[in-house]
Design a protein that fits this description.
Phage tail protein, eight-stranded antiparallel sheet, 10 strands, Pnp Oxidase, Chain A
């Protein structure tokens, strides 16, 4: 091992804050990513041979999916209600998702622009189960950055 070796970050929990909206700790966060659509076109090289050119096209951000145990907090439901009632301008918010380690120290952070809740699922109930009921929020956004 060299002196520059760093261990991978261990995720204990995620905290979310979307401009006076959804706040709290989540047990699962997926979709922190982006992709470029691929544009392909055929051309010929200087010797007249056919070649396939592949270049990046439109950038697309993946939706973020957050899961947490359901509580009496109505923040996600109230935020989603704004979209359901057609008030998308009021629903759009910037926000932050922070990853914490087991010591409660922030080890990674992402910021998002113009995010809004595109889907909200309540928990599935099973009276025979001894599991925490989980609610799931899907957030659509127009860009993100990892800032820590």
């Amino acid at each position: 091992m060299t002196a520059s070796h760093k261990d991978p970050l261990v995720a204990a929990y995620f905290a979310v804050d979307f401009q006076n909206g959804v706040k709290g700790a989540f047990r699962e966060c997926t979709g922190l990513g982006s992709e470029s659509k691929i544009v392909e076109y055929k051309a010929t090289d200087e010797r007249g041979r056919p070649v396939l050119i592949r270049e990046p096209g439109t950038m697309a951000y993946t939706d973020i999916v957050l899961k947490r145990g359901i509580t009496d907090t109505m923040d996600m439901w109230q935020w989603r209600r704004q979209v359901e009632e057609g008030d998308i301008d009021a629903a759009r918010r910037s926000g932050t998702i922070t990853l914490y380690n087991q010591k409660g120290e922030a080890v990674a952070r992402w910021t998002f622009d113009r995010a809004w809740p595109s889907k909200l699922n309540g928990p599935t109930y099973d009276a025979k189960s001894n599991e925490v009921a989980v609610e799931e929020l899907t957030i659509t956004h127009e860009g993100y950055k990892r800032v820590q």
